[in-house]
Amino acid sequence: MPNRHSPDVVIIGAGVVGAACAYYAARSGLSVTVVDRGPVAGGTTGAGEGNLLVSDKEAGPELDLALLSTRLWRELAAEPDVLPPESEYEPKGGLVVAPDETTLKALRVFAEGQRASGVLSSEIPADGLHALEPHLAPGLAGGFHYPQDAQVQPAQAAARLLRASGAALLLGEEVTALLTGRDGRIRGVRTTRRELPAGAVVNAAGTWGGRVAELAGATLPVLPRRGFVLVTEPLPRLVRHKVYAADYIADVASGSAALQSSAVVEGTPSGPVLIGATRERVGFDRTLSTDALRRLAAQAAALFPVLADVRVLRTYHGFRPYLPDHLPAIGPDPRAPGLHHACGHEGAGIGLAPGTGLLIAQALTGAEPELPIGPFRPERFTTGPAAPAGRTAPPTGDPR
Question: Distance between CA atoms of 189 and 185, rounded to whole angstroms?
Answer without folding.
Answer: 12
